[in-house]
Structure formats: C-alpha cells, structure tokens
C-alpha cells in the first residue's frame, strides 16, 4: 500500500510540473508575440488622443512602440536643448510637433537633417529645404456654412473682405486667446494682409459674432445646429461634423487662409538605433496608413504627401494658403493680440 501511495504522489508531482511548465512556456510565447521589438521616445505637441491612435496603429503593423511624451512647445524646446547640450546620447529620437516648434528647434540646432524619398515628395512650403523637419499634414481654417443659410444668399462670400461685409450674418469663431489654431489665423492674416486691413476685417466681423468659443469644435457645432450661420473654423472639425450628418458646407477662402502644419524632426544626439527607427516612423506618417488610422477615429487632416490616396481624395487640396511667413517675436505676438482684445474684442 505504501508503494502505491509513493507512486501516486510521484505521478501527481510530475503532473504539477508539466502543467506549470506548459503555462510558463505558453506565457513566454505570448509575451514574445506582444512585446514590441523596439521602443522609441517621441516628444510631441499633439493632443494625447491623436498620439495614442498613431502609436496603436504603428505598433500593430510594425511591432514598434512609440512612447509619446505630450509637451507644450516651450517644454519640447527645453528638453531638446538639454539633450543637445548633454555629453552623451539623449532619450528622445524624434519630435512630432507644429511647424513653429520645429522651425525654432531647427534654427537652434536641436534637430538633425533627414532626407528620404517620401519626404522629397512633400512640397517645399511644408518642409525645411535641408531636411531638418518635414510636414506630414495640415489643418486649414475654412468658412463652414449652414446649408439653410446658404439658400438665402444670392452670392456666397468666399473672401475675408466679403465675409466681413456680409450683412445680417451670425458668426461663430474660437477666441484667439483660447486655441493655437485660432491665434495662428489672426497672426497669419496680419502677416498676409497687414495690420490695418486685418483689424478692419475683424472690426466688421466682431458685431456679428454670437460667441467667442473656447474650443475649436464649438463654432462648427453651432453652425450645424443653426445657432450661427457661418463658423470660421478648422477644416478637420468641419469634416467631422459633416460626416456626422450635420447640414454644413465648406467654403475655402479664395484670397487665402491659414493652416496649422504638423511635422517631424529627428532629434539631435538621438541614439543611432533609435534615430533609424524614428526615420522609418517619420516616413510612415507620410503614408495612407497613418491617415487611415486617424480617419477611422474621425480625425481628418490634409496630407502633405501628394502621392497618397488620402491627399487625392480631399476636395480642398488645391486651396490657397497664405504665403507670407509669420515671423513675429513673442512680444509682437502679445502686442497684436492685446490690441485685438482692447480695440475689437471688448471695445
């Protein structure tokens, strides 16, 4: 009896070892499949939601994790400066940010040039000529009009002066002090039209503004609900609401408009292996796959790469953008906005 008990105990222990070993190797195999082959750090001024969409799509298709670090423009520049001035290799491999941040980083020597076949297709207006940064998409300001209001017009206003002069019109716009895209519009108009013409346009528009919104989406929602007739808004929000069935029509300003350009730059002193991975990710951001990932989540931007299907499908891809650079100092920007507040917004 003792002999059978010993045999049963031995068999039970062997069974436990087999089960434990199978679980271990199954877990090891699963871990090997899900763990990314590489990870890189990317500083970004994008909203966290956009960054998460891009990371999930890229990791799923390339088995590379993009560890985005959301920062303000000043914080990005400060961290890049610390990396550039450090004695060794830095943590960040890439920057995905607005054109203004990238331009400052390039001038300061915080980026290293990268030229590729994909980047070379991007028009020169959306990239630094020596390859220090390349735009991947842009989001222009448009006139987003309620369709019922359009039916009442004998002639649709399609310039800034015509819009400003339009009588009995209700306007929705995001406050220039509330969002970078809205402030960029005002400053771009100053660069393009000059001080006098720009302030005159906004003095005429101001009495028709129903509300200066805090968020970029609010003016478009108001136009879709019939609370305003025209929203001066980013195209991405206009398309999102149109996709949702709101009765809206986009009118592209014939005399030009401003756009927020988002682009990439390879960080100076990035680890060589990380820099190589970052370059591959930068090229992927210029592809249809990246745009499709964003569009599946209702984010619609205009690609800078004219070779993509996403670019070819955009109705407004031939819109006129302002061509004068916004080269104002921080003090000048402050003074222009302060003048708008005092002489237009709260006069």
UniProtKB/TrEMBL annotation:
PANTHER family: ABC TRANSPORTER SUBSTRATE-BINDING PROTEIN, THIAMINE-BINDING PERIPLASMIC PROTEIN-RELATED
Keywords from the UniProt entry: Signal
Species this protein is from: Selenomonas ruminantium
Protein name, entry field: Iron(III) transport system substrate-binding protein
GO molecular function: thiamine binding; thiamine pyrophosphate binding
One of the protein's GO biological processes: thiamine transport
Origin superkingdom: Bacteria
Keyword Signal: yes
């Amino acid at each position: 009896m003792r002999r059978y008990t010993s045999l049963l105990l031995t068999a039970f222990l062997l069974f436990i070892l087999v089960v434990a070993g199978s679980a271990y190797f199954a877990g090891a195999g699963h871990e090997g499949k899900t763990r990314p082959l590489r990870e890189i750090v990317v500083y970004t001024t994008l909203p966290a939601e956009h960054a998460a969409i891009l990371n999930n799509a890229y990791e799923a298709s390339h088995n590379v994790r993009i560890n985005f670090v959301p920062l303000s423009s000043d914080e990005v520049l400060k961290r890049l400066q610390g990396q550039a001035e450090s004695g060794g290799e830095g943590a960040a491999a890439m920057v995905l940010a607005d054109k203004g941040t990238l331009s400052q980083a390039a001038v300061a020597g915080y980026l290293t040039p990268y030229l590729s076949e994909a980047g070379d297709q991007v028009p020169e207006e959306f990239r630094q000529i020596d390859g220090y940064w390349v735009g991947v998409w842009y989001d222009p300001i448009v006139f987003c009009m309620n369709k019922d209001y359009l039916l009442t017009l004998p002639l649709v206003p399609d310039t800034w002066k015509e819009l400003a002069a339009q009588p009995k019109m209700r306007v929705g716009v995001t406050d220039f002090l509330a969002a970078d895209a809205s402030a960029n519009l005002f400053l771009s108009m100053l660069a393009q039209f000059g001080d006098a013409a720009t302030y005159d346009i906004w003095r005429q528009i101001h009495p028709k503004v129903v509300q200066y919104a805090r968020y970029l989406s609010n003016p478009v929602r108001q136009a879709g609900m019939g609370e305003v007739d025209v929203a001066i808004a980013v195209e991405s929000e206009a398309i999102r609401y149109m996709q949702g069935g709101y009765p809206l029509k986009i009118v592209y300003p014939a005399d030009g408009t401003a756009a927020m350009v988002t682009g990439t730059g390879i960080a100076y002193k990035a680890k060589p292996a990380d820099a190589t991975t970052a370059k591959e990710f930068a090229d992927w951001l210029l592809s249809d796959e990246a745009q499709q990932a964003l569009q599946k989540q209702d984010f619609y931007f205009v690609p800078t790469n004219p070779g993509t299907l996403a670019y070819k499908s955009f109705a407004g891809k031939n819109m006129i953008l302002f061509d004068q650079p916004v080269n104002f100092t921080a003090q000048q920007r402050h003074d222009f906005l302060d003048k708008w507040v005092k002489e237009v917004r709260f006069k």
